Amino acid sequence: MNKSTIVRVEHDAEIALIIINNPPVNTITAEVRDGLRKAVAHPDVSRSKAVVMLCEGSTFFSGADIGEFNGPPKEAEYREIFNAYEDLKIPVVAAMHGTVMGGGLEIALACHYRIALPGTRFSMPEVTLGIIPGAGGTQRMPRLIGAEKALDLIVSARMVDAEQARQLGFVDDVVSGDLKQAALMYARRLLAVNSGPRRTSDMRIESVTATAEIFDKAEQQARKLYPNRTAALVAVEVVKASLTQSFTQGLEYETKRVNECKATVECRGAVHAFFAERETRRIPEIADSVLSRKIQSAGVIGAGTMGGGIAICFANAGIPVTLIDANEQGLQRGLDNIDKTFQSMVNRGRITPEIKAQRLQLISSSLSYDALRNADIVVEAVYEDLALKRSIFLKLDAVAKSGAILATNTSTLDIDKIATVTQRPSDVIGTHFFSPANVMPLLEVVRTTHTAADVIKTVMELSKPLRKTPVLARVCYGFIGNRMMEGYAREAQRMVLEGATPRQVDSALEAWGMAMGILAVFDMAGIDVGVNVHKANAAQYPPDPAYYQADLALFEAGRLGQKNGKGYYRYEPGNRTRFDDDAALEIIKARANSFGIPARAHSAEDIVERCVYPLLNEGFRILEEGVALRASDIDVVWTAGYGFPRYRGGPMFCAETIGLKVLLDGMLKYQKVFGPMHWQPAPLLVELVQKQMTIAEWHQAKLANS
Ligand SMILES: NC(=O)c1ccc[n+]([C@@H]2O[C@H](COP(=O)([O-])OP(=O)(O)OC[C@H]3O[C@@H](n4cnc5c(N)ncnc54)[C@H](O)[C@@H]3O)[C@@H](O)[C@H]2O)c1
Predict the structure, then answer these.
(1) 9 touches ligand 1 (CB under 6 Å)
(2) What is the mean pLDDT of the chain?
(3) Which residues have a Cβ under 8 Å from the Cβ of 341 and sit 6 or more positions away?
(4) Of 614, 669, 651, 668, whose CA–CA distance to 492 is shortest?
(5) Cis peptide leading into 125, omega within 30 of 0?
(6) How does strand 298-301 pair with strand 321-324?
(7) In angstroms, what is the span from residue 332 Cα to ligand 1's centroid?
(8) What band does 2 get if pLDDT is binned at 50, 70 and 90?
(9) Most exposed of 23, 191, 377, 652 (fewest Cβ within 10 Å)?
(10) Residue 529 CA: which ligand 1 atom is closest?
């Protein structure tokens, strides 16, 4: 894109059009700001009677350039540019479409009038990134729609559509047809009735919208939605300042506070997570010249929980998919579940009945492997059993066309052992989806020692239409995510054997930021599922007889988790609320006694340290062994797949913010209490502490030596 054409000024009779074209999503980059600064002073603008601002491509400004968060503050620049538009002596109309967020919405608030196409969506997502709106949003939005509604938008960070925005009062009109023509017409109408500039900064906040109770409520909402975080609370304070300070003072206060926010771990963690997700597709050792294979059709073997979800992913991406199962019953159950999933999407207004029908048409089914003959990729998702998977790959090898990618959704098995039963191990790869496969964003892409570069590249690229965040891993027990889960889950179970209640353990983890306590996760996934995995992989575990005994005791007592209403907790039919259950405690206590496990007291801090330290520690092993390409990939696995708090950046980022020495000392502290079997610091962690090196410095040194 020629930089000079990113922002251009056109003319339509007495109306100047400022048109922005900065693909892909019209981010407000430095070039855009430069263009906007020049455009506002353009002679065509000075000669005009009105200005229309609009963007080409998929959306009006999608927001600020997050890449600039780490550099020098830009707020003063934003302020000066936005004010220049607001100060124009002729009416300025923002004509919007697409997804208008953050800074994109703030520039519209500085315009005098706002119109939007019906599908347009708006949000102020800053607090989820650990900052506050920093380009006037905290001062203009309350002036425009009242403090109460502005606080709700800013604190909840929720999306609203064009009609809701009109009702809230920050969009004047929802227009249809060609946006440019509609905007010109709107501007002409303004001129016809002599409607001049209508500056948001001149408006007064209605006092009924800004009572002490309203601010208290917003503060409570901020605490509830964002425990351990401060940005939303800061946003409430800064909105409050719009009541007592002049507009100019308010903007300066907003700048001061947003820059304080940028220095917090909460913001740095969230920004790190954002960029880490963009980085995962970059595989340095695969040359650009490697061509990916075409994926125009797919097959899925096994119509169970995962197979059904994976088939939905393909259909959502517009890729025809054939689902097969071993028997009619399994197949029909899978197809019924798929239908139900699409129907619930229709019921929630996510898709129309027509789209449901189209997607269902893309899914065919069969009991015969012959139906997979033309598939470009086949994903196997049958029971977690190596012998079964090997037998399936033998059959698949016999029917799949040459060049087809043969993938397995195994979560723990050695994919090399699956690949080598085929005549084409280089076409075999792991595609580890997470449950529910059609919802969870993570896709662990697992390469074996044989997997061809173009197969890796194809699957990494395929993740885009499948709407997944791919992370490349190498084969090892549990790959990246489940391997790190081992120590985390082990300690949680050990603590309930020592007398902590499941609620005590889960509450401590949730208060620390995990999306769901791990014992509740086991109940949700099925206690039997975990037990089967542990039985299948017993040889991989350390020689600790008490290992995973809490799970086993519950399983043997017939407690399978949510599916039969009892696991670590008790559940009532049709309800996922966890109730404490003495029966579970008794079973666990009896098992602990039979192993002679002494009771201990557990503070919330102990619980978090004992669960989280082994998790972080394992990350260093995974990094050193090259199972993950980079530390930030490990972070993505846990933030996108395991509910690790994004505002802590992911396990490796978190290890550095806790301090590597603190982590090492913590591991050694627990080693003293519990012995070295489970509490062995990773060699790389020890090395980094000894050399006082950061993970980034280690990466660089490794690159320099390679
Ligand atoms: N459930 C999860 O949370 C989860 C998450 C990630 C990965 N996985 C992995 O995904 C795989 C599938 O797990 P799931 O939970 O969907 O299992 P599931 O028990 O729900 O479904 C397995 C399906 O495979 C079918 N099947 C069995 N043998 C077959 C054969 N020879 N040919 C065709 N179909 C056959 C069964 O009839 C059943 O419908 C496993 O490898 C598992 O480890 C599961």
Answers:
(1) no
(2) 96
(3) 308, 309, 312, 438
(4) 614
(5) no
(6) parallel
(7) 15
(8) low
(9) 23
(10) 1
Is the predicted pLDDT of residue 1 greater than 70, yes or no?
Answer: no
pLDDT computed for residue 72 by the predictor: 85
- pTM, to two decimals: 0.91
Phi and psi at residue 446, in whole multiples of 5°?
Answer: -110, 115
Q: Which of 503, 645, 685 is nearest to 128 (CA)?
A: 645
The two three-digit tokens of residue 468, written as one number: 């997944």
Q: For residue range 360-389, list pLDDT tens digits in order.
A: 999 999 999 999 999 999 999 999 889 999
Residue 575 DSSP symbol: -
Q: Is 408 in the pocket of ligand 1 (CB under 6 A)?
A: no
Q: In residues, how long is the chain?
A: 706
Catalytic residues: 106, 126
Closest approach atom of ligand 1 to CA 409: 10
Q: Is 330 close to ligand 1, i.e. is its CB under 6 Å away?
A: yes
Q: How far is the CA of 525 from the centre of ligand 1 (A)?
A: 13
Three-class SS state of 542? coil
429, β-bridge pairs: 407
Here the tokens at position 7 are 């922002």
Whether the CB of 385 sits within 6 Å of ligand 1: no
* Across 40-65, average pLDDT: 95
Q: Do the Cβ atoms of 492 and 653 come closer than 8 Å?
A: no
For residue 54, the surrounding DSSP H or E stretch is strand 50-55
Rounded to an integer, what distance in angstroms lies between the CA atom of residue 191 and that of residue 195?
Answer: 6
- Determine if ligand 1 sits within 6 Å of the CB of residue 541: no
**Which two three-digit tokens encode residue 338?**
């798929």
CA of 482 to the centre of ligand 1 (A): 17
Peptide bond preceding 24 in cis form (omega within 30 of 0): yes
Residues 498 and 494: their CA atoms lie apart, in Å, by 6
Q: What is the pLDDT of residues 621-650, one digit of tens each?
A: 999 999 999 999 999 999 999 999 999 999
CA 306 to ligand 1 centroid distance, Å: 6
Q: Does residue 526 line the site of ligand 1, with CB under 6 A?
A: no
* pLDDT above 90: percentage of residues in the chain: 93
**Structure tokens belonging to residue 584:** 């579970």
What torsion, rounded to 10 degrees, do the Cα atoms 152, 153, 156, 160 define? 130
Residues 567/560, Cβ–Cβ less than 8 Å = yes
